[in-house]
Amino acid sequence: MRKLLLLSVLVVLTSCSHRFLDFTVISTKNIDMTKSSHFTRGKSRVSGKDKVHVIVFIPTGVPNLKEAVDRAIESTPNCIGLLDGVVYQKYFYGIIYSQSGYVIEGTPLIDPSLAESGIEIPKYRKIYLDKKGKIKSSEEITSAEYLAEKEKMTKKTKI
């Protein structure tokens, strides 16, 4: 009986983490490489996560590595990328509830010219393009408006 109880506890607490990717430089932002000689390294490492929940074998989404990278980059002001980092894939499997996701860790790559310019870069912006791909207009939006737009777009693309 004790062996069965121990085995069931071990099965319930099963989780795994493995090194998915090592990288030298990674970014999801557009970087002006002509200014690369002015970039600096951050003093401490940062991390970003993206995970999804699985309830009774039904996933609530798909973990997105780009979201994890964005969260790590956005955790440091004026950061444009990450250096010398690692991506881990982590998951926990249970019978009723599970989790799966990515964790990224790295040293921030900072562009000091963003701070010196004094320009506040909006976090979210909606851009309208004409049929030729030229920018017609642009407007700053809130986080709630961004999430609403994102939800509309993902609903349209689901199969």
Automatic annotation (TrEMBL):
PROSITE patterns, per the entry: PROKAR_LIPOPROTEIN (PS51257)
Q: Which keywords does the record carry?
A: Signal
Record's superkingdom? Bacteria
Signal peptide bounds: 1-19
Protein name in the entry: Lipoprotein
Organism of origin:
Capnocytophaga canis
The organism's lineage is: Bacteria, Pseudomonadati, Bacteroidota, Flavobacteriia, Flavobacteriales
